[in-house]
Each structure stands twice: as structure tokens, then as C-alpha cells.
Automatic annotation (TrEMBL):
Origin species: Fraxinus pennsylvanica
InterPro entries attached to this UniProt entry: NAD(P)_OxRdtase_dom_sf, NADP_OxRdtase_dom
Entry protein name: NADP-dependent oxidoreductase domain-containing protein
Gene3D superfamilies reported in the protein's UniProt record: NADP-dependent oxidoreductase domain
Stored Pfam families: Aldo_ket_red
Residue intervals of the NADP-dependent oxidoreductase domain: 16-348
Signal peptide boundaries: none
Classification via SUPFAM superfamilies: NAD(P)-linked oxidoreductase (SSF51430)
Amino acid sequence: MAVPFFNLAPDMTVSRLCLGTMTFGEQNTLPQSFQLLDKALDSGINFFDSAEMYPVPQRAETQGRSEEYFGRWMRSRKIPRDRVIFATKVSGPSGQMTWIRNGPESLDTWNITEAIDNSLLRLQSDYIDLYQIHWPDRYVPVFGETEYDPTQNYSSVSIDEQLSALAKAIDAGKIRYIGLSNETPYGLMKFLHVAECGSGYPRIVSVQNSYNLLCRTFDSGMAECCHHERVSLLAYSPLAMGILSGKYLSLDGCPADARLNLFRGRYVEGESRYNLSSGLIRKTTELYLDIAANYGIHPVSLAIAFVLRHPLVASAVFGATKPWQLEEVLDGCRVELIPEIVAEIDRVHSAFPNPCP
């Protein structure tokens, strides 16, 4: 069975599996990255995701390598530009990555324009298919935080200015479509409202948020917005950073080169959400692994098939550092969950909802 496709925009059809590149340049060397990209394309994947800050954990010495490696791969393999759909992201305000425009400090016109131009230089490409705001330019609880604290609000760049900068990039032919990431229902609706009221502003086509068996918060409020506004979900971390593969719970111990082991203490964004010391996360994961075992399904296939069955999911954005991991994910898109399996999944979710929000 071939990888299925989804019409993300009128003239942009993407594979329902999207290979994320955030390990390229850190965990993966250039030849290893080429090997994974070759296998993905040969297997029917045409959709690839990156970000200006990648690879992770983010460092000044490696920043931008993931985009650069993808561009070098396209040129090395002489791949026609219209054969692949490439998505990347501009970093929101952080203050921690001083090597990216001093923070970055904001998502004002200058920062967005600089980010786009620098990504195009690294890619050595004329355009980016889908350009996403990696996280909002305003206070929101993200990366494992769950409660909104009004006292943390700060002055931020207006959505009008952000859309204006993105509109100019579209008019200049630098990007084709725009999306959001790590966004809330409020943020999505504000972007859509401003676009409707603005003159020639582009409309959001996708939201890239976490969605997996351990994190179904998308279904609480964002799903309703996306359904009525015809905005698709790009579901990142479909394996909950590898936890749902079962490798971190194996009796012989997880491989030392697994991300949460390799970068322990250095990858705050991942560790804050996917905390392996949490008994709740381990217990819930074990229950999903039991479901997979009882029905003779590989745990990765269960996790991927669960995400892809969601009617609002355009594509599952996954990472792989080895070809066999990529093959396991590909197998997942060939599995269809029967109602009995879905019912068991929902029973676990009802008892232990969203341990990795």
C-alpha cells in the first residue's frame, strides 16, 4: 500500500507522512541524512519539515544545518523542485538563542523577512512551500505547560504586522502558503479574523501541534476551530518522541543514542513534556503497548495509525535517525484500526487523559 496523500491547499498535495529533519546536523551526519531522505522519497513521501533553529538541541554551531542539508540533498540528487513539498519555520521570541537575531526578539517585519531570506539561502531554493510561525509572539503555555497565567503576558508584535510581512513574502514569490505551530484556538481564530479583515492577507492553511496517544489536547478546542475553518492539523510527535515505540520501557534498557538519553538535561522543550520519570506516562504507555501486543500490531503502527485516522490530520510529522525507524513508520500507514482497538484506546484515554500535554 502506497503512502496516501492529502490536499493541503488547492495546488499543494502532501503525503500523509511528513519526514521531520530536526535531527539532521546533530544526530544525523550529512550522508546519513541523505540516506533517510532518499528512502523517504523512494517510499512515496514528498513532504518534509524543518525550522530555522534546527537541529535540536539548538546550538549556535549547528543552527540552520537541517535546512542546509535538505537543500544540498535536492541539488545532489537533482530533484525537481516541484517534486517535493518543503515546510520550515521562523522562530518566535525566545531570548535563549542569541545567535538567531539576538534571541530572537520578536516576530516583527524585519525578523520574519530576515528569517525567510536566510532559510532560502541555506536551501539554495527560490521558494518555500509552507512557512510556519514556530511558536507565537505572545505569552502562551507551550511545550508541556498547561495553565495560562495572565501575569506573564507581555507586549507583542501585532498579528496584523506578522500577516503583512508574510503577505509581502508571498507576493515576492518567496513562500507559497502559511501555517502556525504550537498555537492555541484563540491564536488560530485571531489570525483567521485578521486575515479576513485585512487587505490581501494570506489565510492560515495548517496548524502544526503535538498529537499522539499521550497528547490529544488538540481535540478539546482546536479541533472545532480547524473543522469549521477548514484548517488542517500537521500532527507532530506522533510517537511522543519515541516513547510510544516502547523503547524507553524495554527490559534491556533503551539505547544510549535514543534522543531522551543522548541529550538528557540539554533538551528542555522535549524533556518537560516527555518526562520519563513520570509514573503516569510510563503506566499509560504500558497500557497502549499492551493493546498493540494483544492485537498483534507493532507499537509504532498502532501510534501512527491512530494519528492518521483523525479526519482533521493532513499529515503526521515524524522523525527518524535510522532507516529501520523510517520503515516502521511507513508500516504504520498501512494499518487500519478496527473499532475494537479504537474502543480500547479510548478506554485508556478516559482513565489517563493526556499525560504528555
